Amino acid sequence: MTRTAADRRPGSVTARVPAKVNVQLAVGGRRPDGFHDLANVFLAVGLYDEVTATPADTLTLTCAGPDADQVPLDGTNLAARAATALAARHGLEPRVHLHIAKDIPVAGGMAGGSADAAAALLACDTLWGTATPRSELLSLCAELGSDVPFSLVGGAALGRGRGELLEPLETGGTFHWVFAVADGGLSTPAVYKECDRLRDASGQGATTADIPDPEPSPALLAALRTGDPAALAASMSNDLQAAAVSLRPSLAATLAAGKEAGALAALVSGSGPTTAFLTADAEDADRVAAALRASGTCRAARTTTGPAPGATVLANTL
Ligand code: C5P
Asked: Which of 146, 186, 193 to mutate to test the pocket of ligand 1 (most atoms within 8 A of CB)?
């Protein structure tokens, strides 16, 4: 990723943060508050955003990267909300410029916005010398969004509740992935809504009274522990996949193209529209990525591995 000289100027802090894929996303019924209880098995993968915090008169935001034009640069950006929340927690004004070097697909189901929030928290906490205890950073993360705590922690974890209550998981090896980036994003609330609509339409109902409590798959947790890609491929699942494909029917062709090319398994990443392909090794990942590019069913295909570390301070020129 290219970094400009301004990112490295004295007095700035840069934090790097990974994307995620959900190797299991079991979605319970809609709760009275509109959220859904989850059994959400997160795996951090090696596509990264970087957030650089530099002192400024007021909170300002810039973004660079292939999809930078789709990133809001106002107070609704999760990174800006993170800086504001951390400053308020310490009785400060958020006098900071945040620059986001964006490599994670935007609105892609890989927690890019959540990643930027976690990186902004870490970078601002270092810049301001506020030394917020880890437990408080995690509760600030949970207030910002369901996926933000995992972006801070990285590795692999089981998320319960709406995904914010994390239990770290052991992994026994490195998994090789291909991610097919789609044109345009999908709105997470819209995908959950479509999941509810499909459940209602099927007659099963969509509330917590209708849908059994979501549980993690023991076979999937064992596959993560042993690092066995074939076993992981056999046990992965995403309850939001049908809803994402319903809203974006072209994803079916992308999933089929990756499977035909030899991926061990194909699934929608989180709420999509990025699709994820687990492969046996790095060579297979390269082959599947080339086939996906040639298929014309996606905008780009990226290879990477997981687990990846959580948000980390990369450069500190204080
Ligand atoms: O927590 P976050 O702000 O990322 O959630 C975005 C939206 O996704 C929520 O407003 C809700 O519509 C949906 N969601 C949900 N259940 C979850 C997580 C998110 O319904 N566990």
From this structure: 146
Closest residue by CA, ligand 1 atom 11: 189
Catalytic residue flag (residue 20) = yes
Query: Please, what's the b/e burial string for 100-138 (b: 16 or more CB within 10 A of its CB; e: otherwise)?
Result: bbbbbbbbbbbbbbbbbbbbbbbbbbbbbebebeeeebb
Lining ligand 1 with CB less than 6 A are: 34-36, 38, 145-147, 162-163, 188-189, 192
Q: Is the pTM of this model over 0.90?
A: yes
Exactly one of 37, 103, 147, 196 is catalytic; name it. 147
Distance 193 CA to ligand 1 centre (A): 10
Write the secondary structure of 221-272 as one string of H (helix), E (strand) and C (coil): HHHHHHCCHHHHHHHCEECCHHHHHHHCCCHHHHHHHHHHCCCCEEEECCCC
Name the E strands within the chain.
Answer: 13-30, 36-55, 60-64, 96-101, 156-160, 165-168, 175-181, 237-238, 265-268, 275-279, 300-306, 312-316
What averages of pLDDT result for each successive group of 10 residues across the chain (318 residues)? 46 97 98 97 98 97 95 96 98 98 96 98 97 98 98 98 96 98 96 98 98 98 98 98 98 98 98 98 98 98 98 87
Please give the pLDDT value at position 15: 98
Q: Which of 20, 116, 196, 284 is catalytic?
A: 20
What letter does residue 309 receive in the DSSP assignment?
A: B
Q: Which domains does the chain have, with CATH numbers?
A: 5-170 (3.30.230.10), 175-306 (3.30.70.890)
Tokens of residue 52, six digits: 């650089």
147 annotated active-site:
yes
